[in-house]
Design goal:
By secondary structure, the chain is an alpha+beta fold. The protein has two domains: 192 residues, Periplasmic binding protein-like II (D-Maltodextrin-Binding Protein, domain 2), CATH 3.40.190; 235 residues, Dipeptide-binding Protein, Domain 3 (Dipeptide-binding Protein, domain 3, Roll), CATH 3.10.105.10. Helix content is 29%, strand content 24%. It contains 16 helices and 20 strands. The strands form five sheets. Strands 11, 12, 13, 14, 15, 16, 17 and 18 form an eight-stranded mixed beta sheet that branches. A hairpin with a 3-residue loop joins strand 8 and strand 9. It is globular. The protein starts with a strand and ends with a strand.
Length: 498
């Protein structure tokens, strides 16, 4: 295989990053996992139930062994949940997935009880992201020990062979795997970050399978009889966030004709936000700019996912209506605005903000576009320096509590809410519904609460959704692939067709 993003570590708890998580799921496993549609499934857990409002009892699958022959037991669960949030120098901690666990009781070798701070129905969803380790082997193991292969033992379908940072990872089939065996005796994953080079490697036969197919190559590969594409609508939404923090002083990158901030901040006017949204031709962006590799979005998630809101469609392209809304808001002659965004993070990110800038110029908003490398851009966005900016969010949990908690919940450092709400949008009713959903056990009732919160946030234009990306892989003929909504590229999802 050739993948387009480098792995930064083999330690499954070091860096919460999609390429790392994909590799981790080849070698290690969690109590729970997710299927191709991001629905929670049991993996190392055989059964689970609430034995009290704040106590989950989990029964482990019997007979599971780590690659070094050690048995997987409840004591390993306790060890893992203590280690995952406490890995030294982690650039993106897995603690967000273990935070709800306030106590662990090992009942016996195959039974563990996890205590939460009050009712917490999303615990299986969170724990699907945490790979289990062996206390005996990993008690004092460092991240460097994992990268060197000295302690790289999991319970997963493949065993670790070799890791050459920035170049390749080599794995071999786990001959004693407790579930369906993978098709491949040996897998080499090459890291080829250049899009044309990755496609060329596939067409030359140097690799059998690639991920992150460039939109510029999709049409050509569709016509090539040597190649098959595997596609699925993903869980990553691309959207615009807006400065809702500033008020009477205006916002720095929305100005009048003389370049002075407009007071009060126009982005706090619902009519202006609706105008900005309605002026965007999402269908054209998806079909022409993205070449069919996205779908227009009117909410966080695509149809078929838990807490998707039926009937909440993408805002229609209505430039004349947008002009009327601006006039009603007192901006019949528009204003000056700058859109900021990254130029190396999402598919066609810089081109997307250029297109949006053109749409806004047509309704009388004199729009500038500034794209910059992700590292610089996200640091400035996190300091609330921008007025309007393009970002994305991948919902790895497959349900709306993730984007609601992170993107539109009122920012609160103490509670951990709104960590990626960089525009500081706030709506008390969204917060109330979300809080109620997070303590509601009944799935149907929780889904309705999440749907209601989503509907309010979208009607309030808390963000401006643009599109949801498709995940596209390519492979030689003779292979089949189970395309995953979470973008993860895993060797166990690829099989020969004959």
């Amino acid at each position: 295989m050739a993948v387009g993003a480098p792995v930064t570590s083999i330690d499954p708890h070091y860096h919460n990053l999609s390429p790392n998580n994909a590799l981790a799921q080849e070698i290690f496993e969690g109590l729970f996992g997710t299927d191709a549609k991001a629905r929670v499934i049991p993996v190392l857990a055989k059964a689970w139930r609430l034995v009290g409002d704040d106590v989950w009892e989990i029964t482990l699958k019997p007979g599971v062994k780590f690659h070094n022959g050690n048995a997987f037991t409840a004591d390993d669960v306790a060890f893992t949940l203590a280690r995952a949030p406490d890995v030294p120098n982690s650039p993106s901690s897995f603690g967000i997935y273990t935070r709800a666990v306030k106590g662990v009781e090992v009942v016996d070798a195959t039974t563990v009880r996890l205590r939460t701070n009050g009712v917490y129905p999303l615990l299986p969803v969170d724990l699907a992201q945490v790979m289990m380790l062996d206390r005996e082997t990993h008690q004092n193991a460092t991240t460097e020990d994992f990268n060197a292969g000295r302690v790289t033992f999991g319970t997963g379908p493949f065993r670790f062979v070799r890791y050459l940072p920035g170049d390749r990872i080599e794995l071999e089939r786990n001959a004693t795997y407790h579930a369906e065996a993978p098709a491949w005796a040996r897998v080499t994953t090459r890291i080829i970050v250049n899009d044309p080079a990755r496609t060329a490697a596939l067409l030359a036969g140097d690799v059998d399978f690639i991920d992150q197919v460039s939109t510029s190559d999709i049409g050509r590969l569709r016509r090539d009889q040597r190649v098959l594409l595997s596609e699925v609508v993903g869980l990553r939404i691309i959207y615009l966030a807006m400065d809702r923090m500033r008020g009477d002083g205006g916002t720095p990158f929305v100005t009048d004709a003389q370049g002075k901030p407009i007071s009060p901040n126009p982005l706090n006017d619902l009519r202006v936000r609706k105008a900005l949204s309605g002026a965007i031709n999402r269908e054209a962006i998806s079909q022409q700019l993205m070449e069919g590799a996205s779908i227009p979005a009117g909410q966080f998630l695509p149809a078929g996912t838990f807490s998707y809101v039926p009937g909440l469609e993408p805002p229609p392209f209505d430039p004349e209506g947008a002009k009327k809304l601006l006039a009603e808001a007192g901006f019949a002659h528009g204003f000056n605005a700058t859109i900021h965004g990254p130029n190396d993070r999402y598919m066609n990110d810089a081109r997307i903000i250029q297109a949006i800038g053109q749409y806004w110029t047509r309704i009388g908003i004199n729009t500038r576009v500034e794209a910059s490398p992700w590292a610089n851009f996200v640091a400035r966005a996190s300091r609330q320096e921008f007025s309007i900016f393009l970002v994305g969010w991948g919902t790895s949990t497959g349900e709306a509590s993730s984007p609601l908690r992170s993107l539109v919940a009122t920012y609160n450092r103490d509670t951990g809410m709104g960590p990626s709400n960089r525009g500081r949008y706030s709506n008390p009713e969204v917060d109330r519904l979300l809080a109620e959903a997070l303590r509601t056990i009944d799935d149907e009732a929780r889904e309705k609460l999440l749907q209601d919160a989503t509907r309010i946030a979208m009607q309030d234009v808390g963000i401006i959704p643009i599109h949801i990306q498709k995940n596209v892989w390519a492979m030689r003929t003779g292979l089949s692939h189970d395309a995953r909504a979470d973008e993860l590229t895993r060797a166990q999802d690829i099989r020969p067709t004959r």
